[in-house]
């Protein structure tokens, strides 16, 4: 998924470390390529972009189930719709959630100079801070939580309606068609479990640590949630190979061909490249 790939690219350039109980995050420039950015601005920007990618993953999953629902339940109608409208609709949904997420995070931000509890951040550097209490904090956390609730409920409703339609039309549709649609839908459900458990759930748990920064283990909870999110891509790839054996076979053939064409061996102590042509 493109959004997960972009998030992984972001992590190559930087990372955020919680500084709880202060409502702040320490921005770490992993590559040194972001030295031109002010740490406070860079931290705020990195956090917004990171959560933006997570939200986009959720929106993409819901849209995939929505179009699968349309194919199953309204196959004749969807044939009459020009594909351009589908692209416009997807872009509009992504933009709506993006603008809302960026706005609530912008409202949540506060400059280091205006942070109401300066004793919590004295001596700490490279911090990007947020309002530790008040309506702005509640708006951001409730808004973030609300987006995931809306996406989750929408996804569950679409899955239920799709399976219900297939169940009701088992007799009127060909068995092969029904089984194929069920298999595709089941595979989508399996793939959706990974982002939910390793993306949405850590954010919701991490929100608790942010909402109650003075609770015991809040820093550790936040760090574990970030660690789980960091490994989302690898697990998602493994699950994809398990769910779609065809992908695994393609990668396997690619690696075999690559290794068969370029083999490194040592001849008289000198590394030599040996090219082997595969005969089909």
UniProtKB/TrEMBL annotation:
Keywords: Membrane, Transmembrane, Transmembrane helix
Database matches in InterPro entries: 7TM_GPCR_serpentine_rcpt_Srh (IPR019422)
Residues spanning the membrane: 45-65, 86-108, 141-166, 187-209, 221-244
Keyword Transmembrane (UniProt): yes
Source species, domain of life: Eukaryota
Protein name as it appears in the record: G-protein coupled receptors family 1 profile domain-containing protein
Origin species: Steinernema carpocapsae (Entomopathogenic nematode)
């Amino acid at each position: 998924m493109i959004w997960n790939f972009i998030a992984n690219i972001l992590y190559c350039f930087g990372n955020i470390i919680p500084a709880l109980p202060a409502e702040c995050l320490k921005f770490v420039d992993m590559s040194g390529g972001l030295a031109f950015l002010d740490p406070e601005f860079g931290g705020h920007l990195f956090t917004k972009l990171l959560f933006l990618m997570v939200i986009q993953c959720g929106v993409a999953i819901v849209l995939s189930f929505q179009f699968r629902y349309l194919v199953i339940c309204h196959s004749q109608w969807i044939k009459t719709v020009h594909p351009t409208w589908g692209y416009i609709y997807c872009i509009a949904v992504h933009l709506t959630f993006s603008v809302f997420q960026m706005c609530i995070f912008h409202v949540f931000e506060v400059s280091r100079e205006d942070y109401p509890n300066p004793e919590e951040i004295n001596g700490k550097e490279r911090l990007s801070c947020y309002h530790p209490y008040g309506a702005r904090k509640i708006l951001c956390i409730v808004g973030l939580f609300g987006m995931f609730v809306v996406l989750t409920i929408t996804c569950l409703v679409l899955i239920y309606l799709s399976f219900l339609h297939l169940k009701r039309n088992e007799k009127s549709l060909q068995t092969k068609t029904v089984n194929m649609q069920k298999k595709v839908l089941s595979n989508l459900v399996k793939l959706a479990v990974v982002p939910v458990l390793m993306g949405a759930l850590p954010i919701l748990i991490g929100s608790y640590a942010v909402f109650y920064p003075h609770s015991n283990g809040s820093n550790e909870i936040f760090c574990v949630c970030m660690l789980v999110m960091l490994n989302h891509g690898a697990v998602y790839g493994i699950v994809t190979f398990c769910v779609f054996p065809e992908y695994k076979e393609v990668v396997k053939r690619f690696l075999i061909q690559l290794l068969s064409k370029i083999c490194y061996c040592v001849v008289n102590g000198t590394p030599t490249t040996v090219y082997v042509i595969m005969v089909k």
